[in-house]
Amino acid sequence: MHAPEDVKRRFYHTIDIANGFAATPSSVIAGMEALGFRVTHLYGMTECYGPSTVCVTQPGWEDLPLEERSLLMARQGVNYMTLEDQAIMDPDTMQPVPADGETMGELMLKGNTVMKGYLKNPEATEAALRGDWLHTGDLGVMHPDGYIEIKDRSKDIIISGGENISSLEVEEALYRHPEVMEAAVVAAPHEKWGETPCAFVALKPDGASVSERDIIDYCRENMAHYKCPTKVVFGDLPKTSTGKIQKFVLRERVGNA
After folding, report:
1. Which residues of 81-121 form beta strands (DSSP E)?
2. Are the C-beta atoms of residues 222 and 176 closer than 8 Å to each other?
3. pLDDT of residue 256
4. HSE, side-chain direction, 13 A CA sphere, residue 176
5. Distance in angstroms between the alpha carbons of the first and the last residue of the chain
6. Domains in the chain: ranges and CATH
7. Residue 225, φ and ψ in degrees, nearest 5
8. Residue 110 reports pLDDT greater than 70
9. How far apart are CA 255 and CA 235, in angstroms?
10. Is 147 helix (H, G, I), strand (E, B) or coil?
11. Which of 40, 68, 123, 133 is the most exposed place for a label (fewest CB within 10 A)?
């Protein structure tokens, strides 16, 4: 999407991409579609031997405006054909949460592609497979149509003044800023609220004039004020060899490891 115009090449057919990366902002999916790519969003873990869920396009989605359609396409979807079952459950009661698109629970998976356990680590195995379900550690909601949507990793939820804030929700807003190329949000210690969102932002090459105040004001215009970052740090984001943003490094930078 952000490649220089002089190196981009256009094809005369749609190119399908199966995306098995971290939860993808809808603006990225929309941007890829505008370039001629059709993105199918997958979800999986090493513990599940590949894809576990797939966001299958439903009839009628193609008629929706791109912005609305990309939000639906960014969901993690329904269980993959090789997976026995998926559910969003209360990890304490092990009961499914209402399929209302709002009630948060933990994504749990079951099937013969799920691991038997961690090598020589029975304690971790027992915790991960409690109740005969794999506890993924991902928090999400179940929509009325049976599609799941990941809201955050349990370790990435920001608790500010007693309110839960999804780092992915804040990142979704940041990615919609016209000058933001990449963004990641972590909890930063705060004297009054306990912790608040801190945004790490990489700007597009032409976005050098964007300030911290600009980013915060943009967020305040597009989401509840208590969810907005109180600090913005500009610069390149630390990544793994496969391009995944290393949030643990960012947490260390703000003193909240």
Report:
1. 85-90, 95-96, 105-110
2. yes
3. 59
4. 17
5. 32
6. 1-151 (3.40.50.12780), 157-253 (3.30.300.30)
7. -60, -35
8. yes
9. 18
10. coil
11. 123
